[in-house]
Every structure is written in structure tokens, then in C-alpha cells.
């Protein structure tokens, strides 16, 4: 079990005392320790993965139901290493959910440039 799994299990064990308990991430859990809602919509598990109905009525998978992955500085470069074009590409991708023109910068993003809610 990873460090993230251990922290999540501990948070759930200590906070899941009622039918609508919230874990350490503020996400509502039930007594079975499954997510009950996401973005104000009920959650259903499809093939064991948490999903909710999107605006068009289709199932949307919750990719990071326990919050952002554990941070590591290994891939992160100092901010001075990024030029204005790269910063713009990541800012646009965070705002719109995809990169302009479909290409992705060769440099890894800084953590604060990422959104884990997709």
C-alpha cells in the first residue's frame, strides 16, 4: 500500500463515523468508505471506478477522487527555467482543459499550474 493509500485509509477510518462523513480531503464518504457526491452530484461506481453524470448526461470518471497525488519535487524545474510561451501554454491548458493546437510543452509543468479536478 502506498503512502497516499495509508493516509487516505487513516483519514477515512478516523472520519467515516456516519452515513455522510467527510474524509480529510472534504469529500463526502459513506459508511462503506465510497464517495457519495462530487461537484454536488451523486456518485455511482462504474466498473469499480467513481463516476458522476456530466452536463450532457454521460458518465464522467473521477480521476483523482482522493485529491492531488503526493507531491514530489523531482520533475519540477525552477520557475526561471520556463519561458513566457510555455507558461502561457500551461495557463491556457489549466483554464480550458486542453493544450492549444493539441501539442504539449516538452518541459514538465510546475505543480501550481496543474488542475487535479478532471
Question: What does this entry look like structurally?
Answer:
With about 120 residues, the chain is an alpha+beta fold. It has a domain at about 70-118. It has two helices and six strands; from the N terminus they run H-E-E-E-E-E-E-H. It has helices at about 5-15, 85-95, and strands at about 20, 30, 35-40, 40-45, 50-55, 60. It has a four-stranded antiparallel β-sheet with strand order 3-4-5-6, with no helix packed on it. The model is unreliable at about 1-20 (pLDDT under 50).
Percent helix among the residues?
10-25%
- The SSE string, one letter per element, is HEEEEEEH
| Distinct helical segment count | 2
Shape: elongated
According to DSSP, the number of beta strands is 6
Q: Largest beta sheet: what is the strand line-up?
A: 3-4-5-6
Largest sheet: 4 strands, antiparallel
Span from first to last CA? 24 Å
Low-confidence stretches: 1-20
Category by helix and strand content: alpha+beta
Oligomer: single chain
Estimated share of beta-strand residues: 15-25%
The overall pLDDT average reads 76
User: What is Rg?
Assistant: 17 Å
Amino acid at each position: 500500500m502506498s503512502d497516499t493509500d495509508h493516509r487516505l485509509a487513516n483519514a477515512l477510518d478516523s472520519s467515516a463515523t456516519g452515513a455522510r462523513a467527510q474524509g480529510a480531503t472534504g469529500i463526502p464518504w459513506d459508511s462503506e468508505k465510497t464517495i457519495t457526491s462530487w461537484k454536488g452530484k451523486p456518485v455511482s461506481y462504474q466498473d469499480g471506478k467513481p463516476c458522476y453524470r456530466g452536463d450532457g448526461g454521460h458518465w464522467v470518471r473521477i480521476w483523482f477522487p482522493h485529491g492531488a497525488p503526493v507531491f514530489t519535487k523531482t520533475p519540477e524545474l525552477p520557475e526561471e527555467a520556463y519561458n513566457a510561451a510555455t507558461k502561457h501554454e500551461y495557463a491556457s491548458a489549466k483554464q480550458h482543459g486542453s493544450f492549444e493546437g493539441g501539442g504539449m510543452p516538452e518541459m514538465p509543468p510546475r505543480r501550481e499550474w496543474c488542475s487535479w479536478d478532471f
